[in-house]
Write a structure and sequence with these properties.
Elements (H helix, E strand, L loop, with lengths): L9 E4 L6 H5 L5 E6 L4 H7 L7 E6 L6 H13 L4 E6 L1 H14 L2 E6 L11 E5 L5 E6 L6 E5 H5 L3 H24 L11 H26 L5 H21 L3 H9 L10 H15 L4 H14 L14 H12 L15 H19 L6
Parallel strand pairs: 1-8, 2-3, 2-4, 4-5, 5-8
Antiparallel strand pairs: 6-7
Length: 365
């Protein structure tokens, strides 16, 4: 059985939030807006009560945790909401999706950055209150709608767009691994050829447009390259990973979240290094690894552990990361060969040294 899944509707373009009410009116009249604190000034644009629409705004507390999901769910029930609007980054959106699932609400995602593929997916990544990975929550349906205002994305911090490219960078390699191993995708089925080709298009788009898109955001302007990278980071990566599957790169990311020094780095920055480690783990060609390293350096993604804040006791720390990456049920076991903590530990150290060499940093013993 082959399955491909996606949100009900995906909308992207400059200033599309100005017509938000037209899109959500058919879905319900009472909405809870869960907003990132830094988007306070933009919330007024969303909450103009017209044509029978009513909005209740709540500011996100900062972590997609069980406690935050419960807190927001209580508010949604109190205000008798028909739906929830997630307005912010990936953790805001993941929390909104969880609340929508548990409260049986419509879900509309308004990502304000192109930093992850969270907006389109039927899952949430749950962390502890301290920011350590805890679990994935899987839902029977994707969000009803994803609306990406590229003007807002163009004015977001550049590092967030680059982090999104780091997350999207893994999509093709993890999809390819799952396809070869015939691993189940996030829906429990096999990948379709369409999903696999979307994953490949995601990778090709990053290589072709990534640097130009970064420059556009540095100048706070939209461009064709930026529109394509937003689509790659958000939609192509989302459909690619969810309908093809995850493998080593994201499992290694989850392992890295155990290190305190990695907590202030973004999801996609850790995934980028996880992608390099996966390429080493599967013994990819020198040309393939160099292509990924060159891309990471060109856009500013980390290529070694030092660039993720890991400087002392590297071998001991990587042993812990490797063991966590190989926890029972982790996606690393979707690789098309036997994976052990020892093989992951070796891949982490080799990837680190390859990255250091490419970045012109001295080798570490």
């Amino acid at each position: 059985m082959r399955i491909i899944q996606s949100p009900g509707k995906y909308i992207q373009g400059p200033d599309v939030l100005s017509t938000l009410n037209n899109y959500i009116r058919p879905l319900g009249s009472r909405w809870l807006i869960l907003a990132d604190p830094i988007m306070r000034l933009h919330v007024a644009r969303l909450s103009s009560e017209a044509d029978g629409l009513h909005f209740q705004t709540e500011i996100f507390n900062g972590e997609c945790s069980r406690q935050e999901i419960q807190r927001v769910a209580v508010l949604a029930e109190k205000h008798r909401c028909d739906g929830i609007i997630g307005f912010g980054g990936g953790k805001v959106l993941d929390t909104a999706k969880a609340v929508a699932h548990y409260q049986h609400l419509r879900a509309v995602m308004l990502p304000t950055v192109a930093s992850t593929d969270a907006p389109t997916s039927a899952l949430s990544v749950v962390y502890s209150e301290e920011g350590a990975f805890e679990e994935y929550l899987f839902y029977p349906a994707n969000p009803d709608m994803v609306i990406v205002d590229s003007t807002i994305v163009a004015n977001a911090p550049v590092r967030l767009l680059v982090s999104g490219m780091g997350d999207a960078l893994s999509t093709w390699f993890e999809a390819q691994a799952c396809y070869e191993s015939r691993a189940a995708n996030m829906s429990g089925g096999q990948s379709t050829r369409g999903a696999l080709n979307l994953a490949r298009l995601c990778y090709d788009t990053l290589l072709q447009e990534g640097v130009k898109a970064k420059i556009a955001v540095e100048q706070k302007v939209t461009s064709r390259a930026l529109e394509r990278v937003i689509e790659a980071n958000t939609y192509l990566s989302g459909i690619g990973f969810e309908s093809s599957g995850l493998a080593a790169a994201h499992a290694i990311h989850n392992g890295l979240t155990q290190l305190d020094e990695c907590h202030h780095f973004y999801h996609g920055e850790k995934v980028a290094f996880g992608t390099l480690a996966q390429l080493v783990l599967q013994n990819s060609s020198d040309a393939q690894i160099d292509e990924v390293l060159d891309f990471c350096l060109a856009v500013g993604l980390p290529v070694c552990l030092e660039q993720l804040g890991v400087k002392g006791d590297v071998k001991d720390k990587m042993s812990k990361v490797a063991k966590k990456s190989c926890s029972e049920g982790e996606t690393i076991f979707n690789m098309p060969f036997i994976v052990t903590p020892d093989s992951v530990y070796s891949a982490l150290l080799v990837a680190d040294q390859l990255g250091r060499k490419k970045a012109g940093l001295p080798a570490q013993v």
